[in-house]
Amino acid sequence: MIGTASEKVPGGKLVRVKLNFDNGKIFSAAITGDFFIHPEDKINELEEIFIGKSIFFEKADMLKLLEGIVEKHDMKLVGITPEYIVKIAKDAIAAGTEKSMQDEAEKKKKENS
Amino acid sequence: MAKWRMLRLQANDAFINMALDEAISKSVAESKSVPTIRFYTWEPSAVSIGFFQGIHEEVNLNKCRELGVDVVRRRTGGGAVYHDSSGEITYSVIAPEKMMPKGITESYHLICGWIVKSLDLLGIKSEFKPINDIITDFKKISGNAQTRRDGILLQHGTILYDLDVEKMFSMLKVGQEKISDKMIADVKQRVTSVLQQKNIPIEELYDALVHGFGDGKDFDFAGLTEEEMIQASLLAESRYKTEEWNFMR
């Protein structure tokens, strides 16, 4: 399943999170948008935090992990925050789940007709 | 007072333009070059996208190909920009971080202040609007992006000289599948250009920028070093022209 969600962070920039997940586990994550983070390449480590996690992750746990990476590399975030990354990731999971349920229903409908 | 180098307006392709910023940053980091201000245009016209943007999400690649417009990913964050070959002037400021304010907003404010000063010389009133814009008459006239690496601050940005909203939107994706008249009207409400404010040739804008950026600085007009030129052509090939870089997101 693929779920995508995006939101403009108030006073900040557009942040889009795309998650790939199956059987309740996330196996890839991409954070895109017109925000600023430096050093830029450390974004990979923020994305990797999501990999292998349950789609039912606790927001507070995920936030702590993301903040750990930010601190570790003394990353500067402009127009994006760890809080919003977590929030949009949850939205992405909801969107992906909903879409997959719709697709499933659509498939059943076709099979029955 | 720190010595600055000013590089005169030069037209390059997108890949060389981005590679030059990186090559100069390296050279300044190694104290082989003094802090540098450079002015440039894009030949051919190009779209640049922010480091974190998805290329397919932001750019109509087929349209760019059709119009002969290059597409390049920047080292800096921020949004997608259409750089028309005769519609804007781009600048870069490359200097040790220690010469600049520590705060991100403060340093944007300082460098954007040089643009505000330049526009003021043309009789165009503008102001810095955080995070990274300059506005005139409530409309954006300049967009800017900054990064810091290895103790070097790089800020680049564009000053819009002339604007073709329809052309810009044929290449940049803006959420909707179809570009509506209303959307174009909205953007025309939000973006302006030097030409819309004042009927002057682009050379006059360039002169004003040289004065606005150079004001209060000890600077020399100088060229690129041989090493910078070689490094830039290598970086253009090994990074900025590659699919690996441009399609990484």
Provide the structure class of chain A: alpha+beta
Task: Report the count of strand segments of chain A.
Answer: 5
Main beta sheet of chain B:
8 strands, mixed
Looking at the structure, the CATH topology of chain A is: Enolase-like, domain 1
What are the low-pLDDT stretches of chain B, counting only 5+ consecutive residues below 50?
none
Helix content of chain A: 40-55%
Specify which chain pair forms the largest interface: A-B, 18 and 21 residues
Strand percent estimate of chain B: 25-35%
Q: Mind explaining what this structure looks like?
A:
The complex is a heterodimer of chains A (113) and B (249). Chain A is elongated and about 55 Å long. Chain A has 113 residues and is an alpha+beta fold. Chain A has one domain: CO dehydrogenase flavoprotein, C-terminal domain (Enolase-like, domain 1, 2-Layer Sandwich). Chain A has helices at 43-48, 59-72, 82-112; strands at 2-8, 14-22, 25-33, 36-38, 76-78. The model of chain A has no long low-confidence stretch (mean pLDDT 95). Chain B is α/β, with parallel strands linked by helices and 249 residues long. In chain B, 39% of the residues lie in helices and 27% in strands. Chain B has ten helices and eleven strands. An eight-stranded mixed sheet of chain B has the order 7-8-9-10-6-2-1-11, with helices on both faces. A three-stranded mixed sheet of chain B has the order 4-3-5, sandwiched between helices. In chain B, helix 1 (14-29) crosses helix 9 (226-240) and helix 4 (104-121) packs across helix 8. The interface between A and B is medium-sized, with 18 and 21 residues.
Structural features:
heterodimer; A: 113 residues; alpha+beta; Enolase-like, domain 1; 3-stranded antiparallel sheet; two-stranded antiparallel ribbon; 3 helices; 27% strand; B: 249 residues; alpha/beta; 8-stranded mixed sheet; 3-stranded mixed sheet; 10 helices; 11 strands; globular
